[in-house]
Amino acid sequence: MLKYTVILVPEEEGGYAVEVPALPGCYTQGETREEAIAMAKEAIELYLESCKAEGEAIPEETGVESLVVEVREPVA
Q1: Torsional class of 23: left (φ above 0), alpha (ψ -120 to 50), beta (otherwise)
Q2: What is the pLDDT of residues 48-59, one digit of tens each?
Q3: Alpha-helical segments (H) within 8-66
Q4: Which of 1, 24, 25, 30 fits a 20 to 30 Å CA distance from 62?
């Protein structure tokens, strides 16, 4: 089983944009968080199928670390 990091970004007009950093050009979207995740899985599978069909190596997740950091708000 392969694992990939996905980044979900809430859109101003609603829904989520999704990026898969380990797979260049692999983007999708969904109206809800659940739909965005499902669409990400589908996009990843299609990307990997394309790699296999073209005889390209399957990209692997390489040491991606995701963190959330807290910073102080600027004082005006």
Answers
A1: beta
A2: 999 999 999 999
A3: 33-53
A4: 30
Give the pLDDT confidence score for residue 68 in this predicted structure. Answer: 77
Question: What is 1-76's CATH number, 3.10.580.10, 3.30.160.250, 3.40.50.620, 3.30.830.10?
Answer: 3.30.160.250
43-51 long-range contacts (CB < 8 A, ≥24 apart) are 43/18, 44/4, 44/6, 44/20, 47/20, 47/23, 48/2
Quote the CA–CA distance of 65 and 13 in Å, as a whole number: 29
Specify the residue for token string 């499902």.
38
d(CA 69, CA 66): 10
- Residue 56 DSSP symbol: P
